[in-house]
Amino acid sequence: MATVNGKDLNMEQPAVPPSSLIRRVSSRSIRNSISEDKENGVDNNSKGSFVSKYKKAPEAFKSFHLNDVDNELEVPGTPMTPRTSTTPGHENCTFHHDLELDHRPPTREALLPDMANSYRLLLTGLGEDPERQGLLKTPERAAKAMLFFTKGYDQSLEEVLNNAIFDEDTDEMVVVKDIEMFSMCEHHLVPFYGKVSIGYLPQGKILGLSKLARIVEIFSRRLQVQERLTKQIAIAVTQAVRPAGVAVVIEGVHMCMVMRGVQKINSKTVTSTMLGVFRDDPKTREEFLNLVHSK
Questions:
Q1: 3-class secondary structure per residue, 207-262
Q2: Who's near 255: CB < 8 A, 6+ residues apart?
Q3: Is-contact 292 175, C-beta < 8 A?
Q4: Helix, strand or coil for residue 274?
Q5: 112-125 vs 138-149: helix axis angle to the nearest 10?
Q6: Which long-range contacts (CB under 8 A, 24 or more apart) does 108-111 make?
Q7: Assign residue 240 a region: left if phi > 0, alpha if psi is -120 to 50, beta otherwise?
Q8: 221-239 exposure pattern, b = at least 16 Cβ within 10 A, e = fewer
Q9: Which residues are annotated as catalytic?
Q10: Rounded mean pLDDT of 76-101?
Q11: Closest by Cα among 142, 225, 153 to 188
Q12: What pLDDT shows up at residue 237?
């Protein structure tokens, strides 16, 4: 009996392999399908041939979405959302195990006094006078701003999607490009910003278009690195609609490179994540990239 990570692949519920197995299964399926086509005299170069191969592929490939998606979304270093017993500072909170208790994790507003005090100490450390007129309310303003910049920590995918998932008999590519993105570099606590383009191939379900932008907001409004952000967006779309493939490309400008360090003001960072068909079929990937780069 085949197992992956100790889980039975023959269970009644759909078995979902990890990404490394996805690549092996999908590549092997494609090769076998091509061999079958050659034996049957089928032209592999004909239009739509990959789709026919995909339909022959095993269910593990069709359901390429990742195993333990929640764990994949919450990459180490990014607190769980909403706060749980594994969030630093909440390890001993019995609230997370007994919802009838009065204890609740602190609201974001309740964090403001301590954060403002921290900013006041920072100003003092810089040699400034926090009591002078121009800085008198700066600690509170800065604390509120930081809470807004990181509001994604208190947003969940289910909350943001709000059931905006619809049954639709379509398998054509959906692309939303040039979604504005603002985030905070976790290494220097300075902003990076840019544009996100997302594409997916539906399998009977589509996502409200604005929800793709909201998914970007969930994960960009945290302390981030662009590489992680790209992956998290792709996995979130996978979790939402279980498509045949997801592609995400981010082009970002990092202020930690522009206004400090090497100070290269024209530098841009491009990252991509390709899952499912976008990873395994060059033509599908090329179509997506052409659409993203077209004016």
A1: ECHHHHHHHHHHHHCCEECHHHHHHHHHHHHHHHHCCCEEEEEEEEEEHHHHCCCC
A2: 185, 190, 191, 192
A3: yes
A4: strand
A5: 120
A6: 108/147, 108/151, 108/154, 111/143, 111/147
A7: alpha
A8: bbbbbbebbbbbbbbbbbb
A9: 185-188, 226, 254, 256
A10: 51
A11: 225
A12: 96
Q: Which two tokens stand for residue 262?
A: 């090497």
Within 10 angstroms of residue 97's Cβ, the number of other Cβ atoms is 8
Distance CA 133, CA 135 (A): 6
CB 187 within 8 A of CB 77: no
Instruction: Show Cβ contacts of residue 182 under 8 Å, excluding neighbours closer than 6 positions.
Output: 149, 191, 193, 220, 221
| Pairing assessment for the beta strands 223-224 and 174-185 based on DSSP bridges | parallel
Do 65 and 73 form a contact (C-beta atoms < 8 A)?
no
> How far apart, in whole angstroms, are the C-alpha atoms of residue 193 and residue 213?
14
What number of other Cβ atoms are within 10 A of residue 218's Cβ?
23
Phi, psi (rounded to 5 degrees) for 9: -80, -10
Taking the model in full, what pTM does it have? 0.68
- End-to-end Cα spacing for the chain: 51
User: One-letter amino acid identity for 76?
Assistant: P
For residue 266 the two structure tokens come to 């024209």
pLDDT tens figures, 177-215: 999 999 999 999 999 999 999 999 999 999 999 999 999
Query: What is d(CA 161, CA 110) in angstroms, rounded to the nearest whole number?
Result: 27
| Strand, helix or coil for residue 168 | coil
> CB-based contacts of 138: which residues, under 8 Å, 6+ apart?
119, 123, 130
Kindly tell me the sign of the dihedral angle through the C-alpha atoms of 158, 162, 163, 165.
negative
